[in-house]
Amino acid sequence: MSLLPICIYPDSVLRRKAERIENIDEQIQCLIDDMIETMHEAPGIGLAANQVGRPVRLVVLDVERREPGRGLLVLINPELVGAAGTTKSEEGCLSIPGYFAGVVRHQEVVVRALDREGKEIEIAADGLLAICLQHEMDHLDGKLFIDRISRISRDIFKRKWKKKLKEEEGVEAQSCLD
């Protein structure tokens, strides 16, 4: 297993719609293991394959922060098949480090997917798991949580993010000159 680099916004792979996985082969199994290790090391509670530069419909989640691995889910080709209610919660993203915003999502969801062995599973979720499922599945469709905040908040975020990236470029350029 190895740690994978996490793609940071505005990397274009984050906006690509991920392709369905047709074969759960050794390469996909290796990607699953690497994604799990990367997610835990980050530390995060969810990671979509396109966040590590692989635009395929694969998500790993582990919302059990106190006991990593206990609540581990691997979802291949996940689909939202049911939803009810709405809730608003603070979200962040490994691909947009340091930024958090309130996002409205479904309160309860039902997701159908394949597990890592190719067996069909169905998950009914609420709370943090429901939010995480929706967040990661958005990634597979090329959407980020910032797409779900108000236009004004998104404009403010983009201005601040551009400034942050320019400052980081300046620091990197300066360190090269030292």
Description:
This protein is an alpha+beta fold and 178 residues long. The protein has a single domain (12-146), classed as Alpha-Beta Complex (Peptide Deformylase). It is 32% helix and 31% strand. It is built from three helices and five strands. It has helices at residues 26-41, 127-140, 151-177; strands at residues 46-48, 58-62, 72-93, 96-114, 120-126. Strands 1-2-3-4-5 form a five-stranded antiparallel β-sheet, sandwiched between helices. The chain is globular. It starts with 25 loop residues before the first helix and ends with a helix. The model is unreliable at 173-178 (pLDDT under 50).
* Residues in β-strands, percent: 25-35%
**Helix amount, in percent?**
25-40%
CATH architecture: Alpha-Beta Complex
Detail the poorly predicted runs.
Answer: 173-178
- Give the strand order of the largest sheet, numbering strands 1, 2, ... along the chain: 1-2-3-4-5
Q: Sketch the major β-sheet.
A: 5 strands, antiparallel
Structural class: alpha+beta
What's the tally of helices? 3
Structurally, the number of domains stands at 1
- What's the β-strand tally? 5
Distance between the termini: 36 Å
Q: Which geometry do the CA atoms define? A: globular
CATH class: Alpha Beta
Per the CATH scheme, the topology name is Peptide Deformylase
Defining key terms:
single chain, 178 residues, alpha+beta, Peptide Deformylase, five-stranded antiparallel beta sheet, 3 helices, 31% strand
